[in-house]
Amino acid sequence: MINTVTEHAGGAASSAGNLPGVATEPNFAITPKISGDGSREGELLEISMGPHHPSTHGVFRMDVVLEGERIVKLKPVFGYLHRNHEKIAEGISYLGSMPYTDRLDYFCSLTNNWAYALSVEKLAGLQPPERAEYLRVITAELTRLINHTCLIGFLVQDMGALGTPLMYAFREREKILDLFEALTGARMMCNYMRFGGCRVDLPPGWLEQARRVVDNYPRFLDEYESLLTENEILVARTQGVGVLPARLAINAGVTGPMLRASGVDYDIRKVDRYGIYDRFDFRVPLGAHGDVYDRYMVRVLEMRESVKILQQAIRGLPDGPIMDAKAKLRNFRPKAGEAYGRIECPKGELGFYLISDGSPNPYRYRVRPPSFINLTILEDMCLGQKVADVVIILGSVDIVLGEVDR
Amino acid sequence: MDEGLRSELSKQGIFTITLEGLYNWGRRSSVWPLNFGLACCAIEMISASMARFDLARFGAEVFRPTPRQADLMIVAGTVTKKMAPQVVRLYNQMPEPKYVIAMGACAISGGPFKQGYNVLKGIDRYLPVDVHIPGCPPRPEALIHALMTLQHKIDGQRLAGPDRPRHLRAEAPSEFVIPRFGAHDLEPPQHPDVWQPPAVIRGES
Amino acid sequence: METLEQIKARIEAALPGAGLRLIPNDSPANQPSLLVDNAHAVAVASFLREDAQLQLDYASNVTGIDWPESVRKEKVKVKKVIDGVEKEVEELIEKKRPGFLEAVYHLYSMTLKQGPVILRLRTENRSDKAHLPSLTAVWRGAELQEREIYDLFGIVFDQHPDLRRILMWDGFQDHPMRKDYVEPDDYEYEPTPHDKVLEKAKRHYASEANR
Question: Which of residues 339-368 of A touch C (CB under 8 A)?
Fold first, then answer.
């Protein structure tokens, strides 16, 4: 539907129930282009991309105003997968929320579990034993591998590759999901971490199979890269597109590979040194330009670093218990207080802010979602780009709607 | 027709089938799903169409992005109240004959998020569902099993008679009421022709 | 990084008159926070961002919290005259704390790799005076999170560039994360109800029996 958009007045309070002076309409005040004799040049086209669209990563809607093919204004609309996770968590116990954290970023369920377990351990003063920490690192880095591989597959599919790299990515993902299923019992919703350690120990033969998968991974990455990294279509479509300057990225709270592609050296594994990451030798890849190609390359290089961490962790896995002896499984009531714990999940900084009032249920349970906050500057990156580029830029932000909307 | 006669003829190169069987065989071997994933179950749906589980060998190769070209809507994931009008609108845009598979616990009844204020407790409140797949998320094999169940269902549909399917009956509706956003909830909270709360027989509690 | 007391002292030296209060945190996490009064919030935020020793340029998390009105009973020793003799007696007095809404900001520094510093802002009450200054001009990352707090809690952020509902639809009338929110009643079919769900489902049993 074509709307002739001339000027929109700034938001007017219309419906009752909203407080006066608060906008209900998006503020689309645009300065139209005036030609020589004072008349308006061209017309602006307002379209809604989503919530059902072949290239959105879930039910996400963008209201864009176009001038020809170029974006003049872009307002994202959220909430189509708002599943009330925070409200539900106030009604169930701390451990009861653990399966719900799987479903936040449903691609990487084990890192979500770790972030939540870390926050509760900060709140209650628990310390997992060494073997549990190693298992956590191994599962988290395997999760990082599947996330980055499949994300590159989705990004390239949005560019029109119609599924071939995605098929390769999902082939590798299935191998790692076999490992997860053998360890935790489920392919996707693993529910593996507990407050003070991990739920079960490794079954026999798991470590050898993991070692085989990890040792074969660099060969798969070489195959993947030989198809993509110097592919002229990829290079032409992604270099210079969606540039994010470093200062804006820091101020907008962007984290994860998007931030590092803009050149900011901030990886929570190195900054907070949570878990036992300070024992492993790995580098943090940084980009120089902050465009989509840099985000793609940062993810490829991060996968290679993850393989290095995995090889070190599998070699150094000690024996021992997997749960803190002080951890209480029943009647878990942490002392009244609050805690904020965060980890570097594959999408960025995933944090959990918990307030306890001494009862078995949390008083306030807040998820700090990286995908949601990385979308703050979606409009800034897309202004002046073409419609087809918007889809690629959205793909490079790496959103998962379960986390954006919670 | 006698099965012995049929196999004798087929050995000679003569294949026999009823018109109904031919019509249904064509329809059920080329069910084209709508590219419609909402949440976590969508990832298992994508896995089912990838190399290991391969939905393509059942005829569901092409996932169409537009509802006008699809005849199966796999509702994979939680339907929230904000998204529900769009789901019903998409269903209305699909041409007959159309089928709905409710994949996962969330699409059947709200699932683990049932107590949410923004969660629709099952897509069958607004749409008629043909196959339900339990699971959170259901394995890709379960999705394949559901597709085969749907194919059996299509095989058993008659061309004429009182029990013929909806798309051959002129008076059956093919478009359903789209809910509107109310002040506190969707209006109407469920479609009375499509869903009535089933009677549950309870003991003395 | 310096302790929160030192930071508080330096802010008070730089911005005299800013009403700051240290809120302790009893849990082993050891993350106390700084309560700032609303009039000076933007100034304190700018100071924290520009200060050379702190450089808190990254607002990681912005949370809303609902604290409804609460009554706390405290045992207090009171001198009373009983039978002509002055004695010290323990009495139970009720302390009423009015309700308010709160916004909590977790701040980190990406340049100096330190943090967190936690700021708290409180509204005056939960109904008509639920206004707070928006810190989006200082940290752009707070933009979407403050919109979410407005949507789910009802705190109005003044000078926010685009304050409208973000997760619920525009015509929605309540603020769902508040503790006194009543959700819509669509619990007609519950195969295994228990606890609170049983209460909600029982309201529909009578009509079921009539079917």
Answer: 339-342, 349, 351, 353, 355-356, 364, 366, 368
The angle, 0 to 180 degrees and rounded to 10, between the axes of the packed helices A206-228 and A130-156 is 30
CA distance C64 to C148: 9
> What pLDDT was estimated at residue A39?
56
- Residue ranges of domains in chain C, CATH in brackets: 4-66+100-175 (3.30.460.80), 181-211 (no CATH)
Q: Which residues of chain A have pLDDT under 70?
A: 1-41, 56
The residue of A106, A147, A180 whose CB has the most chain B CBs within 10 angstroms, and thus the best one to mutate to test that interface, is A106
**Could you read off the pLDDT of A77-126 as tens digits, one per residue?**
999 999 999 999 998 899 999 999 999 999 889 999 999 999 999 999 89
Domain spans of chain B, in order of start: 33-160
For the domain spanning B33-160, the CATH number is 3.40.50.12280
Q: Which residues of C touch A377 (CB under 8 A)?
A: 140
Predicted confidence (pLDDT) per residue in C82-131, tens digit: 777 777 777 788 888 888 899 999 999 999 888 789 999 999 888 888 89
Query: Would you tell me how many other CB atoms lie within 10 Å of the CB of residue A76?
Result: 22
Q: Bridge partners of C90? A: C77
Q: Which residues of C touch B199 (CB under 8 A)?
A: 208, 211
pLDDT of res. A28? 53
User: Which residues of chain B have a CB within 8 Å of the CB of C197?
Assistant: 115
Residue of C nearest to B116 (CA): C183
- pTM, full prediction: 0.89
Query: Residue C180 — φ and ψ, nearest 5°?
Result: -105, 25
Kindly report, residue by residue over B164-181, the tens digit of the pLDDT: 888 888 888 888 888 888
Helices (H), A187-245: 206-228, 232-238
Chain B residues at the C interface, defined by Cβ less than 8 Å, are: 81-82, 109, 115, 117-118, 121, 181-185, 189-190, 197-200
In chain A, residues with a C-beta closer than 8 Å to the C-beta of B47 are: 170, 173-174
What are the start-end ranges of the E strands in C37-183?
Answer: 58-67, 70-82, 85-97, 100-109, 114-122, 131-133, 156-158
